[in-house]
């Protein structure tokens, strides 16, 4: 039987052990990072920072610019690693264990899959990523993650 932990009023994340932060380099993911860092520090959770290279964008850019798809992908990978390293540096101000994850594919699908595989207790994502927002004020990737995630999702505006 799973241990039941009492959460004092106002401490809704007291049972979190693993938190996932999905980032894409947008202002929205930067705001979400601050929230995720603070939650992970408060709950002493491990923080998984995930960036997904959108392969459909890589393919489209390669076709539109007559560039070699492998070279374009390599550039996206280098930028993704640099982005993750930036978040790792920002997290040094917090007492948090970090794991960086660079994925390729559909961002929402890969984020949902990672949440399932890692068994995270919370997914934190910006409301508007690199793609922008729908009429609801929530980006399409954030909406898909919210609907498909096995874990609670905190969307940061």
Briefly, what is this?
This protein is of the alpha/beta class and 157 residues long. It contains five helices and five strands; from the N terminus they run E-H-E-H-H-E-H-E-H-E.
Structure description:
There is one protein chain. The protein is α/β, with parallel strands linked by helices and 157 residues long. The protein has one domain: 3-Layer(aba) Sandwich (Rossmann fold). 45% of the residues lie in helices and 21% in strands. The protein is built from five helices and five strands; from the N terminus they run βαβααβαβαβ. It has a five-stranded parallel sheet, sandwiched between helices. Helix 5 (140-148) links the parallel strand 4 (122-126) and strand 5 (153-156). Helix 2 (55-65) crosses helix 3. The N and C termini lie far apart (37 Å).
Task: List key phrases describing it.
alpha/beta; single chain; 5 strands
